Every structure is written in structure tokens, then in C-alpha cells.
């Protein structure tokens, strides 16, 4: 086991482990550390703890010192210099006529490097721009092209939920999100409904995915043939995942269709081919082709009645 602390360099940024170097460092303090980019000013978000060797990316660098008032003043000054550098770079981009959008500027704590983050549709030849910026700032210049997700994370905004974006407030890293997650949660597949400010699928689709996967395992599919607790045969019309309710159509004794609703746990027997998701009980009866045809006719009848009501 190795003692480490977790340090973050930007708001909602990735957390990196460092050796506390026998210093009494507590969560909430600021520290000066050495990174691959140079000397950096970071905020301690995880106090001293022990982790296994597998969780460490070698070589593990040590903390140089806990910040002093002078370090805090220098960091504040760097933040002001970043705003000035941003304005200068925007003017230079316009001068060279480059098709790129500047997103953010970042100074390393020791001023050994200035990083410019930008977005663009394709590759950009910014060699002349780098020469101009190096002549102005007299230090190493790095231009880094980022994607739309990273752009939104840096700038921040308000989501359709009315709250600040997750990526800008607390998400350290982006998790893979797929359209399958929206289908699993029975959401509208309208891109405007499930896309975030960045234009990509919303990160929050991932939050409840495991819950919906678990709940869907205990529900039949739409169109499955089931038997009610009263012994009636019916076909599933819709399901309510969160409430675990199943809505189905059955035929009454007089031959008229009837729509009923049951809890999924009450449908202990399923007719015909087993449902891929259903795990309630065993299959004990099989439906004949004639009965299956009747159920289809009932479903078509319900659709026609619904169409007539709308008209």
C-alpha cells in the first residue's frame, strides 16, 4: 500500500495522485506539485490515504510544498494574465484568418508554458500563429485542439433540467453514453430531447442505466402473450418500468376486448415463447395458433377504436 493525496488542477477536472512527501496535508488545502507540464498549483480534494500499486500510474511524483500566501498571489496573478492572453490570441487568430475558435488559456504556475485550447472543424496550420504568440509571451506555447464535449465542460452552461451542467460542476471524466441507454429507459429518441448543450448524448443517461436494466429484467416485452391471475390470456400493450405495471388486452366472455392492468409480479405464467427479459416463474401453457390469431385481431380492433375516437 502507498500513501497518496488526490489533487485537482481545474474545476471538475481529473484527480491525480501525488506522494504527500511526509507533509501533513489535509483535504481543502492547496499544494505545489511537479507534473509533466511543469510546476503546477493544485487543490487537494482527497486527503492522505493508502491505495494499492495497481491504482498508481508510475512514476508517482511528490508534493513540493503546501502553498504559501506568496504562491496564492502568484496564482491569482496568473489567472489575470490568462484573460489578457486570451484577448491577444483572439486578435492574432483573426489576423491570420484561421478557422479556429479559442476556448480557454492556461498558464502553468511557473510560467514555463502557456496552453491555448481551441476547437476547429478540421486540422489547422497554426505555425505562424505560434511564432507570433511566442514572440509576445517569451515562453513555450502549446496549442491544443479539443472536442465539443471538452469545450462545453470548460465554458459551462445550463442544461435542459435547469441546473448547471454536470460536466462543468462535478464530472471528472466523460463516461461512454449510447443510444441503447435511451431506449432502455423508454425515452424519446428525438435528438433534441436526449442531446446536451454540446450536441452529444447527455451524460446523465448513464446515471440510472443500471437501475433500468434491473427493472426491465422483471418485465415482459410489448407484444408478449401472458396469463393473468384469473387465468385469462392476454397480450401486453405497454409497460410502466418504474411502477412495474403491465397493461394488456384480453377477451371477455362475451367476446369483447378489455384492457387490464397488473403488477408484473402477478403475471406468474407466460404463454408461448418465453420473453427474453421476463424472469417471473416458469412457462406451463402454450397458446394455440387460433388463440394467437384472436389476440392479434383484438389488438387491431383496439387500434381501430382508438383511431375512430381521434377522428
Short description:
With 311 residues, this protein is α+β, with helices and mostly antiparallel strands. The protein has helices at 69-96, 127-137, 148-155, 166-169, 179-184, 191-194, 209-216, 289-310, and strands at 2-8, 15-18, 30-35, 38-51, 63-66, 101-107, 113-119, 140-145, 225-227, 233-240, 245-251, 257-263, 269-270.
What general outline do the C-alpha atoms trace?
A: elongated
> Helical region count?
8
Mean pLDDT: 84
Spatial ordering of strands, largest sheet: 2-1-4-3-5
Parts with pLDDT < 50 across at least 5 consecutive residues: 269-288
What percentage of the residues does DSSP assign to strands (E)? Answer: 25-35%
How many strands appear in the DSSP assignment?
13
Let me know the largest β-sheet.
5 strands, antiparallel
Structural class comes to alpha+beta
Distance between the termini: 72 Å
Portion of residues within helices: 25-40%
Describe the structure.
This protein is 29% helix and 26% strand. Strands 2-1-4-3-5 form a five-stranded antiparallel sheet, with no helix packed on it. It has a five-stranded antiparallel sheet with strand order 12-11-10-9-13. It has a three-stranded mixed sheet with strand order 6-7-8, sandwiched between helices. Strand 9 and strand 10 form a beta hairpin. The longest helix is centred in the first third of the chain and has 28 residues.
